[in-house]
Structure formats: C-alpha cells, structure tokens
C-alpha cells in the first residue's frame, strides 16, 4: 500500500497551497477531491478576477467565536506574501479600493499555477474520488473506490457549504465530528438579505448607492444594491455575516452628507421635500423614500416631527430582513470546526495528533475583500510548516 506523509482532503485554495508548501519541504503528499478538476471554487472567485488578498489584513477582519485564533497564522503569512508568491511565478496583481488585491491574469490562472506547481513538486492527485471511509490506526487511512491510501498526517481542507455548485459539502464537518471535534453551527455569510413577500422597494431593483450599514456595534461603508428580493451589494454582504434573525440593520443613505444641514438650508426656500431628496439620493429612491404627501410639501412647512422622521429615514433607516439569501448565494460559510480544540500555530487538532483543519472549514470567516482567500493561504501555509515526515 502506497503511504504518504500527508493526505489532504480538498483540492481547493487551502488544500492546494498546503500541498505545494508541504511538497516543497520534501514531504510526500496526496490530495483527494470529489471534483474532476482542482480549484473549482477558486476559479470563480472575485467574479473570475480572484481577489486573492488584501494589503490591510488584520485579525479584526475575521469573525470567529475564538477571536484571537487567527492572530498567529496571520502574523506568519504577511498580507503581501501571496502577491509575492504570484510574482515569483510570473503572475502579477493590481490593488483596487479598500486594499483589495486582484490577479491581473485572473482566477483560472491562479488555480492553474497552483496545480502545475503541485504537479512539479510531486503531489499526487486523486480526483473524482468519493471518499468512503477515513479511519485512524497508527496512521490515517483514506478509503475510496480505488483502494485505501494511508497518510501519517491528515489535512481536512474540504471548505464550507457556500456555492454548492462548486463541490461544497458537509463532508469535512463529519470528519471533525468523527474525531470528536465540536462544530460552531455553520451558517451562510457574505450573502444578500431577503425581505420576503411584499418587499416595498422591489421596484428599485438595480439601484446602487454608497451607504453606511450597521448591525449592533459593527458597521461598513460601501455600496448597497436594491434587488427585487431585498438588499445586496458589498455593504450588505459584509453586514450579513453579523446579522441576527428578527433584528433590524440600520442604513445611513447619506453617509457623506448631512441631511439636517441641507434641509435646514432648504427651509429658507420654496423647495419641496422631493426636490431636496432628489439632490441627496438616486431619483427613483428619492421618489419612494418618503410618502408622496410628505414629498410634495415645501420643506419650509414641515412640522418638527416630520423633519425628524425624514432625517431618521435618511440617516438611520431601520430595515428588518426576513432571512439570509442562503448558501447558493453566499460567498462563504461562517461557523464550522470549533477552533478551541485546534492549535492556532499549526492548525493541528489538540486531541488528535496528525489531524489538521485549514481554510473555510474552520470557524474563521473573513470580511469581503480578499480576506477569505488570505485565510486559506495562511492556514494552509502554517499547517504545511508543521507537518511531520513518516518515520
Ligand atoms: C462565488 C464566490 C466568489 C468568491 N470570491 C472570493 C474572492 O474574490 N476573494 C476571497 O478572499 N474569497 C472569495 N470567496 C471565498 C473563497 O473562495 C473561499 O473562502 C475559499 O475558496 C476557501 O478555500 P478552502 O480551501 O477552504 O475551500 P474550497 O476552495 O471550497 O475547497 C474545498 C475543496 O474540498 C472539496 N471537497 C468538498 N467535499 C469533499 C468530499 N466529500 N470529498 C472530496 N473533496 C471534497 C471541494 O470539491 C473543494 O475542491 C468566494 C467564494 C465564492 C463562492
């Protein structure tokens, strides 16, 4: 039976980078995936442009029930480390808003590069492989229809549940539970928010504007997009990771302007409310944000309560979504393998030596903007550094 130093489950972002790093250290590595191609999700990241990282990565860009877990790995894999890796291998990058780093040659080029370098480093791929069983004796044994493959170390890089069309499955969570690890309940994150039947703003579908959106103490400034089902756009995706069912998000539609000042100035004129709103907001939104009777009133005639209502509507509009749009529309899965039983330095299970978890399967969820791929690289890298050779 052919045995490996490392068997990795998942040929996605974290699994490929871990495989490459381990193979370059001289370890023998096998990678299993039930997809027929490697990096299937990686190839669609960033709308095909691969937002592979961010110049401003800090632990504060990640949600976890164990908030300090990411500190060690992030300190050992610098924000620009993957950018440098791409450059060393003939690809280049561009920095866009909010420090986001994209690969100029696109996501497919990144995935192809990782697979090619893995092949050159001697990684063996077992693709289209349905794993039937994993057991642990003195080593780990992965059984698939083609046989049983032993590995001294087992790295679970099977990702989360988002975008099932790219091969996402709950397999990795099952492996974690089999070996006695706890799960923080997985949930869709970086997803649109649905408003349910009778969404009053459905007619605004397609309108986008810069907003500040808040849930509890967390807020983001970015674009909000009205859709026929509810709210989307980067600001909404970001807040969806924090939102809790039944509670409102608070939207400031004019984060860069003061409607109080603008309305106060308009009181000395004959302007109607709708005219002033039209200067602050996209016209279709301006026409719907206040009831028609209020919109038709001259600002000078507004009662104190009407003025206060209007300012609140513009700067602190409370919207209670019905639900998250779900895994089919989510970029990532929040929750996952509870990190309390994982070493933050190596990603190895504290209770099961040789068993590692990397990437999105862990209860570490990045903000929008390249953070999730950075976590995939960083966690894969530190795990690969600590993997041990067979005796
Ligand atoms: C549409 C979209 C766009 C995104 N864009 C960005 C972006 O631009 N920047 C960013 O930072 N993040 C982005 N993300 C998130 C990012 O892609 C993921 O966080 C990242 O790919 C996670 O890496 P991973 O290795 O943990 O999991 P994955 O890349 O999902 O890899 C997991 C692998 O495990 C395999 N697998 C699952 N179950 C089994 C099984 N039973 N047997 C064998 N193999 C199995 C899967 O087939 C898959 O190949 C995006 C996500 C989506 C859905």
Which features characterize this protein?
391 residues; alpha+beta; FAD/NAD(P)-binding domain; Elongation Factor Tu (Ef-tu), domain 3; seven-stranded antiparallel β-sheet; 21 strands; elongated; binds flavin-adenine dinucleotide
Q: Compute the number of structural domains.
A: 2
Counted by DSSP, the helix tally is 12
Distance between the termini: 16 Å
Low-confidence stretches: none
3D shape: elongated
Proportion in helices: 25-40%
Main β-sheet, in a few words?
A: 7 strands, mixed
Reconstruct the topology from this structure:
Blueprint: E1 4-9, H1 13-24, E2 29-32, E3 51-54, E4 62-63, H2 70-76, H3 81-88, E5 93-95, E6 100-103, H4 107-120, E7 124-126, E8 133-136, E9 140-144, E10 147-156, H5 171-178, E11 183-189, E12 193-194, E13 208-215, E14 218-226, E15 230-232, H6 234-240, E16 249-252, H7 259-266, H8 273-280, H9 283-289, H10 292-296, H11 304-315, E17 317-319, E18 323-324, E19 332-337, E20 355-357, E21 365-366, H12 371-386
Parallel strand pairs: 1-2, 1-10, 2-7, 10-20
Antiparallel strand pairs: 3-6, 4-21, 5-6, 8-9, 9-10, 11-19, 12-15, 12-18, 13-14, 13-16, 14-15, 16-17
Residues 9-15, 32-35, 40-42, 44-46, 50-51, 131, 157-159, 162-163, 167-169, 171, 331-332, 359-361, 370-373, 376 line the site of flavin-adenine dinucleotide.
């Amino acid at each position: 039976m052919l045995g490996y130093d490392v068997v990795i489950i998942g040929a996605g972002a974290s699994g490929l980078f871990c495989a490459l790093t381990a193979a370059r250290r001289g370890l023998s590595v096998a990678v299993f995936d039930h997809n027929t191609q490697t990096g299937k999700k990686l190839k669609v990241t960033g709308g095909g442009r691969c937002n592979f990282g961010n110049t401003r990565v800090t632990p504060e860009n990640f949600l976890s029930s164990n908030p300090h877990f990411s500190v060690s790995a992030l300190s050992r894999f610098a924000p620009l480390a993957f950018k440098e890796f791409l450059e060393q291998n003939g690809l280049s990058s561009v920095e866009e808003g909010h420090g986001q780093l994209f690969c100029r040659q696109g996501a497919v080029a990144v995935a192809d590069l990782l697979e090619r370098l893995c092949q050159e480093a001697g990684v063996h791929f077992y693709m289209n492989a349905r794993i039937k069983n994993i057991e642990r004796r003195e080593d780990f044994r992965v059984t698939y229809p083609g046989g049983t493959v032993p590995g001294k170390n087992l790295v679970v890089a099977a990702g989360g549940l988002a975008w099932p069309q790219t091969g996402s499955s709950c397999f990795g969570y099952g492996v974690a539970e089999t070996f006695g690890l706890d799960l923080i309940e997985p949930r869709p994150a970086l997803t649109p928010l649905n408003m349910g039947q009778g969404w009053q703003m459905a007619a605004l579908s397609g309108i986008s504007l810069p907003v500040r959106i808040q849930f509890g103490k967390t807020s983001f400034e970015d674009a909000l997009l009205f859709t026929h089902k509810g709210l989307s756009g980067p600001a909404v995706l970001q807040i969806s990771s924090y939102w809790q069912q039944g509670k409102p998000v608070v939207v400031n539609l004019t984060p860069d302007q003061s409607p109080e000042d603008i309305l106060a100035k308009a009181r000395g004129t004959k302007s109607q409310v709708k005219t002033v709103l039209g200067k602050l907001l996209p016209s279709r939104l301006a026409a719907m944000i206040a009831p028609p009777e209020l919109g038709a009133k001259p600002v000078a005639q507004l009662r104190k309560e009407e003025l206060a209502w209007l300012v609140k509507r513009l700067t602190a509009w409370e919207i209670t979504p019905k639900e998250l749009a779900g895994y089919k529309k989510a970029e990532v899965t929040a929750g996952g393998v509870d990190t309390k039983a994982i070493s933050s330095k190596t990603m190895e299970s504290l209770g099961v030596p040789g068993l590692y978890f990397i990437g999105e399967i862990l209860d570490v969820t990045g903000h929008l903007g390249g953070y999730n791929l950075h976590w995939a690289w960083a966690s894969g890298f530190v795990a690969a550094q600590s993997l041990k050779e067979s005796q």
